[in-house]
Structures are given as structure tokens and as C-alpha cells.
Inverse folding.
């Protein structure tokens, strides 16, 4: 797995002084804030090609807007596109290595 997108995101979070607990919550798409916790669900479903009305209703139930869902889809598409070009270009990265979590 090519991890170029993950590396700079985690680096920027560390620079912003996000604590280790906050980083781990973000990497597992978890948050104590119901709104923030709901936003990754559509992204996860879109990335796996099976978003449905259930995920959309759950997100909307905690006031995730259609604009936020559209932004999630756009950011996901942009990250995938960027990653593919980085793979094709064999981009060197100065970001520290990040060990990925596996989906359980």
C-alpha cells in the first residue's frame, strides 16, 4: 500500500500539536463529537463503493449537511487521484514513515 497521503496528514496534525490520543481517534475515524464522528462514515462507504441511504440518514441525523457530504466525496476523490499520480511518478517523500492500521 502506498501511504503518501497519510504521511503528510499525520505530520501536519503533529505540527498542529494534536495529541497522540487525538491522532489515534482520527486514524480510526472516531470522535467524542457526534457530528465529527459521523463525517467519516460516508467517506468509508464511498471508498468501498457501497454508500446507501442508511449511511446518509445516519450522517444527516447528527446534522451533517449535503455540502459536507459532497466535500467528503470531493476530498476522497482528490486524495485518490493525487495518490495515483504519486505512485506513477514514484514521488520521493520527506514525510516520516507511517505504519497503516488494518481494517478489522
Amino acid at each position: 500500500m502506498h501511504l503518501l497521503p497519510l504521511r503528510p496528514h499525520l505530520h501536519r496534525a503533529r505540527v498542529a500539536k494534536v495529541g497522540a490520543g487525538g491522532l489515534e481517534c482520527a486514524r480510526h475515524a472516531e470522535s467524542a463529537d457526534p457530528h465529527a464522528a459521523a463525517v467519516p462514515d460516508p467517506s468509508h462507504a464511498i471508498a468501498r463503493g457501497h454508500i446507501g441511504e442508511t449511511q446518509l440518514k445516519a450522517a444527516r441525523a447528527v446534522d451533517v449537511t449535503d455540502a459536507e457530504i459532497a466535500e467528503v466525496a470531493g476530498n476522497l476523490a482528490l486524495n485518490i487521484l493525487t495518490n495515483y499520480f504519486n505512485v506513477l511518478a514514484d514521488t520521493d517523500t520527506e514525510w516520516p514513515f507511517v505504519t497503516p492500521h488494518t481494517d478489522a
In short: The chain has a mean pLDDT of 78. The two ends are 16 Å apart (CA to CA). The CA atoms of residues 42 and 54 lie 10 Å apart. The chain has six helices and no strands.
